[in-house]
Amino acid sequence: MPADRLVSAAHALYAGPMGTTENMRGRRPRLGARGPTVADVARLAGVSPMTVSRVINTETSVLPATRDKVRTAIATLGYVPNLAARSLAGGQQCRIALLHANPSAAYLSEFLMGSLAQASLIDAQLIVEQCDPLEPYQALVGRLSGHRVDAVLLPPPLCDDPALLAALEAAGLPVAQIATGRPAAFAHALTIDDEEAAHRMTTHLIGRGHRRIGFITGAANQTVSAARRAGYDRALADAGLPHDPRLVAQGDFTYRSGLLAATALLACVPRPTAIFASNDDMAAAAVAVAHRGHLDVPADLSVCGFDDSAMSRTIWPEITTVHQPIADMARQATALLAGTVRERSAAREASVRHVRVAFTIRHRASDGPPPLD
Amino acid sequence: MPADRLVSAAHALYAGPMGTTENMRGRRPRLGARGPTVADVARLAGVSPMTVSRVINTETSVLPATRDKVRTAIATLGYVPNLAARSLAGGQQCRIALLHANPSAAYLSEFLMGSLAQASLIDAQLIVEQCDPLEPYQALVGRLSGHRVDAVLLPPPLCDDPALLAALEAAGLPVAQIATGRPAAFAHALTIDDEEAAHRMTTHLIGRGHRRIGFITGAANQTVSAARRAGYDRALADAGLPHDPRLVAQGDFTYRSGLLAATALLACVPRPTAIFASNDDMAAAAVAVAHRGHLDVPADLSVCGFDDSAMSRTIWPEITTVHQPIADMARQATALLAGTVRERSAAREASVRHVRVAFTIRHRASDGPPPLD
DNA sequence: TGTCGTCATGGTAGCGCTCACAAAGAAGAA
DNA sequence: TTCTTCTTTGTGAGCGCTACCATGACGACA
To answer: Residues of A with CB below 8 A from B281's CB?
Structure first.
């Protein structure tokens, strides 16, 4: 059996240093054959384990020559640090809970990718918790402390829930809100400038030649809705276009609401030549309504969305939309929270950061110049 | 400063055992105030730390009375095991890579939830890796071993890629395929019975009274496509319905292909009264085509999908579809892989399991009886 | 009655790493 | 030259837990 051989070999290796016959009855060193350790690297590089640790981590106070020796040794052995040992020794346990309301929300997978990548990088533990809206928040917060959660990541729409935010603040948990329209004073926040994005998109449509641009608003209780609406309004004003209230229809971010809103907009006379919806689901609904009315998109009607969700790439034609770097925002939020947790355990005052990240506009097939007629 | 006070208190606690004056200059015990440890629980319960460990883990060889004492102590202190210490001491490092081709695939978030939950439960580390189809698989596998990956989780469509499977098998990595139509002999596989599910859905439509049921196939290179098609065929045969080849249209799982296929199907005379698409994106496309032709769904045309993806709940009407318990499959796959990794490190022969999990049909608003005409 | 298993429990060491501190050397000030 | 500082490197302990044995108690069998 090769496995037996391996164990014996390891035993032989360790028997040497043990030396004295008294210890020879000694236990064999656990079940062996795991990867190289700092000690192995240190031996090869001719330095102490501590120096190796310093090279891996802070990189400060190490002579370039020493550092290079260590780096070479690491590369030679294919050394990978043992996260478990590191966090045990470092004593920096950091559990971050990701609260979500809806397990199949489109942005969630991207969100998870980002925070997961960062968490494994800095050796934080990510805990994903479903947040049932019926459950009282006190109970939820209790559950979190039961799990020894150190910080909380809040994607939309949870990031806009005042009761939840209040409960978390009362519990003294560091919080990061992602893609909220109104960051709380006590929380980290990662946002794009929704107003500016909507302004840019509307301006883009105006630049294409559109003069009658319909707008479908988001849900009234989500803070980004007002910002997106404001951007649309400002762009019209900047271009000196008249503001026709019939060109703004109320939506609530659902496809169904988009269907109703788009139907209302397309019933206007004269018809708008473009519709800008506050999210992609509603934009997709607008495309469906247009097609039902035998209008071609984009030849007869341009449609733009917001969020760059899967929907915008799934339907045909693919929708021009505003892309938020969700994964990157989640990554940054995770890093900020871990920083706060560690500062706090070092009894330093933790500061709160509100970060604006850049959005981009994804130009796809759903917009074009207005029809000539 | 309360922090200082805490440290001093901890110091005092530790000074006792240290005893000799020589050691009194001794370091204080790191920066303290982390949660209770096995030692604390053991002290309170009046047993040894080892017994506490046994209660937490295997529960074997512990007298019920002892177990209860320990459990009470755990509850009193609010003890939570330290995962880092556990995996360090247990020596059971287990890294599982989740390979995916498309970061925004609809099922991915659910998939992640499931495997993440299981991974944190059994203290395995989940690594998410983007798998660029252009990258040669040798390089990918090399990257995986570089990260010290012990096992690989393969969601669709990667689970059907023969070259990738071959490369992983050659590298000796345990693999779990999720939702594949043709499990590899060397890999774990978690599947539903696609053929049976398609049969059940088709039979459901027949039961509703439909006699002309259109079918949109999946991509030819994915193994589930044939199974779903076979289920449709068998249901027709079971019901003694004639098999009209014009009622089967080729799709490739994209919305766009669904648009084309549905258009072809609805051009048949007499028109089918129902369309069963091999996934939800194509079913959504069929709904769009129907609406464009001023057909009501489900009054004029019933539409059913497969996968229960976000799309099926987003559009209107919501689509009746086959639900795969993706999260649960991911959970089981993760558990199987961890088991294999641990058996293997214990030099036991690891066996491969092919598990069939139950699907359910989600009845929603897109199907009904055929029109009377 | 003595010997042997079997079961519940305890003792000890060590997983791989990093902390606090010590030591050694180099550079600057007196 | 000697003392002080700073910088780089090393030492020893311990993070919290579990693997591996040892031990003692108890009943079964000869």
So the answer is: 314
Footprint of strand C on the protein (CB under 7 A): A 26-27, 29-30, 34, 37-39, 49-50, 52-53, 56-57, 79, 81-82, 85-86, 88-91; B 27-28, 30-31, 46-51, 54, 60-63, 65-67, 85, 88-89, 91
Full DSSP string of A308-334: --HHHHHSSSPPBEEEP-HHHHHHHHH
For the residues B224-237, what does the mean pLDDT come to? Answer: 97
CATH T-level topology, domain A93-192+327-358: Rossmann fold (3.40.50)
Contact indicator for B179, B240 with CB cutoff of 8 Å: no
Would you call A15 an interface residue with chain B, using a CB distance cutoff of 8 Å?
Answer: no
For B4, what's the count of Cα atoms within 13 Å in the CB-facing half-sphere? 1
What pLDDT is stored for residue B35 in this prediction?
Answer: 79
The top-scoring range by mean pLDDT among A121-130, B9-18, B313-322 is B313-322
Among partner residues B87, B117, B347, which is closest to A3 by beta-carbon distance? B347
Split at pLDDT 50, 70, 90, the class of B136 is confident
Token pair recorded at residue B64: 């019920």
Instruction: State whether residue B177 is helix, strand or coil.
Output: strand
CATH number of the structural domain B93-192+327-359: 3.40.50.2300
Interface check for B284 against chain A (CB to CB < 8 A): the answer is yes
Answer whether A126 sits within 8 Å of B117, measured CB to CB.
Answer: no
Cα A83 off chain centre by: 23
| B27 interfaces chain A, CB cutoff of 8 Å | no
Kindly state the tokens that stand for A285.
Answer: 């609904």
Q: How far is the CA of A273 from the C1' of C15 (A)?
A: 68
Inter-chain CB proximity A314 and B104 less than 8 Å: no
Classified as helix, coil or strand, B230 is helix
Q: D18 C1' – A34 CA distance, angstroms?
A: 17
CATH superfamily of A2-89: lambda repressor-like DNA-binding domains (1.10.260.40)
* pLDDT cut 70: percent of chain B above it: 88
Question: Is A194-323 in the same CATH topology as A93-192+327-358?
Answer: yes
Q: How many contacts (CB atoms, under 8 Å) link A and B?
A: 140
Mean pLDDT value of segment A361-372 = 96
3-state SS assignment for residue B130:
strand
CA distance A350 to A5: 53
Contact call for residues B261 and B271 (beta carbons, < 8 A): no
Paired residues of B276 in beta bridges: B215, B304
pLDDT at B31: 44
The reply to whether residue A104 touches residue B108, judged by beta carbons under 8 angstroms, is no
The helix/strand count (H/E) of chain A reads as 14, 12
Phi, psi (deg, nearest 5) at residue B115: -70, -30
Q: Where are the alpha helices (DSSP H) in A19-107?
A: 38-45, 49-56, 64-77, 83-90
Instruction: Identify the band that residue A33 occupies on the pLDDT scale cut at 50, 70 and 90.
Output: low
User: Cα separation of A189 and B364, whole Å?
Assistant: 38
Give bridge partners of residue B189 from the DSSP assignment.
B177, B354
Lowest mean pLDDT of A297-301, B105-109, B191-195, B340-344, name the range. B340-344
Q: pLDDT band at residue B201, thresholds of 50, 70 and 90? A: very high
Class of domain A194-323: alpha beta
> What residue segments make up the domains of chain B, in order of their start?
2-89, 93-192+327-359, 194-323
Residue A305's nearest CA partner among A274, A324, A281, A327 is A281
Give the nearest nucleotide to B89, CA to C1'.
C15
Q: For residue range B91-131, what is the model confidence (pLDDT) as tens digits?
A: 777 889 999 887 767 788 888 889 988 887 777 888 888 88
